Amino acid sequence: MTPEDTMRLLVALRSRGVTDTRVLEAMEQVDRALFVSDTFADQAFEDVPLPIQSGQTISQPSVVGLMTQALGVQPRDKVLEVGTGTGYQAAILAHLARRVYTVERHRTLARIARENHAVLGLTNITQISGDGSRGLPEQAPFDRILVTAAAEDPPGPLLAQLREGGSMVVPVGVSDHVQTLVKVTRGPDGYDYEELLPVRFVPLVEGVEPG
Ligand code: SAH
């Protein structure tokens, strides 16, 4: 990432409302070019989503920034991400949290993400190949949960795996075109829901895929 690339990225993030210093610093440290295929390398620092393997997409940097900021990750947190893709968001979370578990239903993507994280020397990420809509009961509860695929409703198993006082950020909606980013916070007596902004994500799909 050249200084010009970093500058362009930071300008885009700030102009979209990413102001949290820790989030900006984490994003400065993660070279997005590693997570896009060579075909799109020249666009790695544009504020756009790009195609990745298995017909999926790497998220738009400003959306990654806004979701991460909304999640409010603390240094001691144990975080679950559902929908690793090639692992860009997980790498950023790994700079902010104690431990990151990330689940991807496409085996090929899970393998690519694992390799990317190894290249970056990020040892606090556990990559899991599987259906993340069920969460990860054996590692629950989580302080933070980030879902990077759109669900019709916040998945029940994920709500159940949130620690009291913890929060989850998830794109919610039935449309393929626009969904609403929702922040769910677990309080002593139940869940509080806050609508944040319109987003567009690939759908959360149950089951696993080899490719
Ligand atoms: N977090 C990624 C975004 C990847 S796109 C990034 O940083 O760029 C969303 C990903 O969610 C896709 O790779 C898709 O395969 C995955 N996905 C969809 N449903 C899933 C499920 N039930 N469990 C795990 N991964 C899922």
CATH topology: Rossmann fold
Low-confidence stretches: none
Overall CATH architecture: 3-Layer(aba) Sandwich
Q: Can you tell me the CATH superfamily? A: Vaccinia Virus protein VP39
Average per-residue pLDDT, rounded, comes to: 96
* Structure ligands: S-adenosyl-L-homocysteine
Alpha-carbon Rg, integer:
16 Å
Give the strand order, joined by hyphens, for the main sheet: 5-4-3-6-7-8-9
The number of distinct β-strands equals 9
The 3D shape can be described as globular
User: How many helices does DSSP assign?
Assistant: 6
* SS class: alpha/beta
How does the SSE layout of this entry go?
Layout (H helix, E strand, L loop, with lengths): L2 H13 L5 H9 L20 E2 L5 E2 L2 H11 L6 E5 L5 H9 L2 E6 L2 H13 L5 E5 L12 E6 L8 H5 L1 E11 L6 E9 L2 E10 L12
Parallel strand pairs: 3-4, 3-6, 4-5, 6-7
Antiparallel strand pairs: 1-2, 7-8, 8-9
The site of S-adenosyl-L-homocysteine has 24 residues, from strand 2, helix 4 and strand 4.
Catalytic activity: [protein]-L-isoaspartate + S-adenosyl-L-methionine = [protein]-L-isoaspartate alpha-methyl ester + S-adenosyl-L-homocysteine
Subcellular location: Cytoplasm
Protein name: Protein-L-isoaspartate O-methyltransferase
Features:
single chain; 211 residues; alpha/beta; Rossmann fold; seven-stranded mixed β-sheet; two-stranded antiparallel sheet; 6 helices; 9 strands; binds S-adenosyl-L-homocysteine; transferase; Protein-L-isoaspartate O-methyltransferase; PCMT; methyltransferase
